[in-house]
Every structure is written in structure tokens, then in C-alpha cells.
Amino acid sequence: MDTDAALTVTVYGLPAPQGSKRSLGNSVMVESSIHVGPWREAVVWAMRQEIIRNRGWSALDEALEASMVFSFARPKSHYGTGRNKGELKPSAPARPATVPDLSKLARSTEDAVTTAGGYRDDALIVGYRRLEKRYTTDHGQVPDVLDVQGAVIRLYRCEAPPGGDHR
Predict the structure, then answer these.
(1) In angstroms, what CA-CA distances link 72 with 55, 129, 138?
(2) Which residues pair with 127 in a beta bridge?
(3) Which of these, 74, 80, 77, 114, lies nearest to 94 by C-alpha position?
(4) Is 14 a member of any domain?
(5) Per-residue pLDDT tens for 49-85?
(6) Strand partners, 156
(7) Of 9, 109, 129, 140, which residue has the fewest beta carbons closer than 10 angstroms?
(8) CA–CA distance, 124 with 63 (Å, rounded to integer)
(9) Residue 65: left (phi > 0), alpha (psi -120 to 50), or beta?
(10) Which regions of the chain are under pLDDT 70?
């Protein structure tokens, strides 16, 4: 467990990107991903549950670093069939280097954390300690990888540089 995180939240559900929009005409734009709404709702719910557990919590309002590890189920095509059913094919990729785009996953998640009151504004994030997409099959081998789809989100307060040097 990462004890120096100011807040750690585990979110269950299908992580979805934000950012791409399509036009319905008459200046009406909608999110391209139908999954972004449910994902953001899952993040808001999980974040608010954690905030309730941290009585007296007030939204972080300082420079922050974040960690987000998104876990995805492997497609069935990664597994063998017949007597090899359930075994990964040798050709199965180690990491999910496919859609959704990692930066768009972070964007949807950052906005949901703001909505939930985890921090005042996602502009406070000055860096990432970790930002990854992993398969759920890495659970137990790689920290913060879940055994089901979702994400582990950690927020860290930035330490002031020694001697007040703010370069």
C-alpha cells in the first residue's frame, strides 16, 4: 500500500476516454464514446465514498502529482481454444497498446475527480508518478492492477523544494 498518497481510490467499471466529440448538426456536439458517462459516474461515486470515509476532507487545493493505473480485460482472441482454452496465445501482446488513448482516459478521470471534490481543479496536477494501461491478467504481479476492469487512482501532495527554492 502506498502510504504517502493523500487519497487513494479504486474504481470498478470499464475505463472510457473523453475528448473526441462528434457533431449532430445545429452546433450540437456529443461525446463519441458512449462509455464515458458511466465511467465518469463510477469515478465520482468511488471518489465520494472515499471522501466520506475521510471525515473532514476538503478538496485538495495545491500542486499535485497523480497516479492512474487502468485495468482492462483481455479480448477472447488472446486466448487459445480447445485444449488450450484459457491459456494465453504466445502472440498475445503483453500490454494493451490499442484504443482507448491513455491521455483521453486520464482526461475523463481527472474531470470526474474534480466533479467528486477530490481536488479543486485538475489544473493542479503538475505531473504523473504513474500513468498506465494494463491487462487484468497482470493482477498480483504488477502493483495497482485490478483483477477486473477499472482503475486505481492516487493523488499526492507535491513537496516544497528544500530551502524554498521554487525553480
Answers:
(1) 32, 20, 10
(2) 65
(3) 74
(4) yes
(5) 999 999 888 999 999 999 999 999 999 999 999 999 9
(6) 65
(7) 140
(8) 5
(9) beta
(10) 1, 19-25, 28-33, 160-167
